[in-house]
Design brief:
Strand order of the largest sheet: 3-2-1-7-18-17
CATH architecture of the largest domain: 3-Layer(bba) Sandwich
Largest sheet: 6 strands, mixed
Number of domains: 3
Distance between the termini: 47 Å
Number of strands: 23
Shape: globular
CATH topology of the largest domain: FAD/NAD(P)-binding domain
Bound molecules: flavin-adenine dinucleotide
Radius of gyration: 23 Å
CATH superfamily of the largest domain: FAD/NAD(P)-binding domain
Helix content: 25-40%
């Protein structure tokens, strides 16, 4: 079996194939084993955010606040980020593959016909399957002047060795919002531009609004509902014109408006597929009509997140090894997702609007994230909204969104409840520990009972 791309999706798949069979597995990697996530995305971005987030948390808590009166040590933050990405050296990733007996081939792979993969002039033949796990590149929108200004992508912003003096961030999705806040905290003067009418447009509207407040508090200037119409560079100065008429200038420009699959040079034409686009797959992660070809991770566009790619890797591996029932079903419709800003946004399933668009008779229970006994320990300024979206006909949760500081780890309970389609009356028996913010679940059940005029403790 041949896996193309040793990012998180490819690595997990290769490891699982080896741990569950004695077949030969080769993984081909043209850059760094560990992929975008380990070196230029998830890991460095969280390393840049976490110190200021920890400081903000301490400053909200009386007693700790007095001890946390100093400034962020920017040099130490960047040093720690460099440790997290192992100075862009992937040798620490290699034992994981070696221990599992996965053969690593360095080089750029191209598909060269059915079950054939060419690397460095040599053609490898897969007896069973070829799995494409090549990930995605940043998307640069067709803004006049953009190709000439040497704008930054996620790679430069996550590995920058110096704080950009003045930074414009194009794009208010998770990557744009996280990087705007991180670098503002680290001392940059940051302006963020989002074309749609709010940040995090795929999340509940209140999530984008509350993150916008958090960004403003960090000093980020926001231009929302307006697009870049032209950009140019004069020496060290970049000027960006907006269609609102405003003109912004900065020393650096980050483009974070989306991703494009790495399928341009992949040889897909040799098997009758078109290059350049996302590699379409069915719920078995197989390319339609080509039962030997699988695509997992960002390249299939089902969900551009590491944990979704790792989930697909497990499903695809099981399918390749003969489990005909292995099917991906929870990575497309609202997989769990976290934006690691302050406040954080952690969500799973559908928003209320998405549920209505699908014809679900859905209602929402909205709560204040901070309004539990456990929440009180997070201090002043730890506010946010939590929303539970219920399918009234089936009395099950179809979506949950938490906004507030450090809510990421609250999400898994919501993921379990939505994936398992647990009836609300069953949730009523899930005792929440006191005093923790998990009592939001108790408040949800009580609010739901009150609204329906029922109690939920009888029956199952
Ligand atoms: C700034 C930023 C922050 C993010 N933060 C998070 C986060 O906190 N949590 C989260 O879940 N997701 C996050 N993501 C998304 C996450 O990075 C991706 O979803 C994830 O990296 C996709 O994994 P992958 O294995 O599909 O691809 P990748 O990680 O891109 O790995 C693909 C690998 O394939 C290799 N490759 C490509 N073409 C070839 C070829 N022809 N031959 C050989 N090798 C090839 C590449 O070199 C690469 O190593 C973030 C993204 C960005 C940009």
């Amino acid at each position: 079996m041949i896996v193309i791309g040793a990012g998180p999706a490819g690595e997990v798949l290769a490891g699982r194939l080896r741990s569950r069979s004695d077949k030969r597995v080769a993984i081909v990697e043209r850059e760094l084993v560990g992929g975008e996530c380990a070196f230029y995305a998830c890991m460095p971005s969280k390393a840049l955010l976490r110190p200021a987030e920890a400081l903000a948390e301490a400053r909200r808590v009386p007693g700790a606040a007095e001890a946390a009166a100093g400034e962020l040590d920017v040099a130490a933050v960047l040093r720690r980020r460099n440790e997290v990405i192992h100075e862009l050296d992937d040798s620490r990733q290699l034992p994981w593959l070696r221990d599992r007996g996965v053969e690593l081939i360095r080089g750029a792979a191209r598909i060269a016909g059915e079950r054939r993969v060419e690397v460095g002039g040599e053609v490898l033949l897969a007896a069973d399957a070829v799995v494409v796990a090549v990930g995605s590149d940043p998307l640069f929108p067709p803004v006049p002047g953009l190709p000439e200004v040497h704008a930054w992508s996620n790679r430069e912003i996550t590995t920058a060795e110096r704080v950009p003096e003045r930074l414009i961030v194009l794009g208010g999705g998770p990557v744009g919002a996280e990087m705007a806040q991180a670098w503002a905290w680290l001392g940059s003067t940051v302006t963020l531009v989002e074309a749609l009418d709010r940040l995090l447009p795929r999340e509940e509207p209140f999530a984008g609004e509350q993150v916008a407040d958090g960004l403003r508090e960090a000093g980020v200037q926001l231009h929302v509902g307006t697009s870049a119409s032209e950009v140019r560079r004069d020496g060290d100065e970049i000027t960006l014109k907006l269609d609102s008429g405003a003109s912004l200038s900065a020393s650096h420009l980050l483009v974070a408006v989306g991703r494009r699959p790495r399928t341009d040079e992949l040889g897909l034409e040799s098997v009758g597929l078109e290059g350049g686009g996302y590699l379409e797959v069915d719920d078995h992660l197989q390319a339609p009509g080509l039962p030997w070809l699988y695509a997992i991770g960002d390249v299939n566009s089902r969900s551009l997140q590491t944990h979704a790619g790792k989930y697909q890797a497990r499903v695809a591996a099981d399918r390749i090894l003969g489990d005909g029932g292995a099917t991906a079903r929870s990575d497309r419709d609202g997989p769990p997702r976290v934006t690691f800003t302050d406040p954080q946004v952690a969500a799973v399933g559908l928003t209320l609007e998405q549920a209505h668009e699908r014809g679900i008779r859905a209602t929402a229970v909205d709560l204040d994230t901070e309004a539990t006994a456990g929440g009180s320990f997070y201090g002043r300024g730890a506010e946010g909204t939590t929303r539970f979206v219920v399918d009234e006909d089936r009395e099950v949760l179809v979506g949950v969104t938490f906004v507030g500081p450090d809510v990421a780890d609250l999400l898994q309970a919501a993921t379990v409840a939505t994936v398992a389609e647990l009836p609300v009356r069953r949730l009523a028996h899930a005792i929440a520990p006191f005093p923790t913010r998990s009592e939001l679940w108790l408040q949800f059940v009580e609010a739901y009972e009150a609204r329906r005029g029922v109690t939920m403790h009888s029956g199952n």
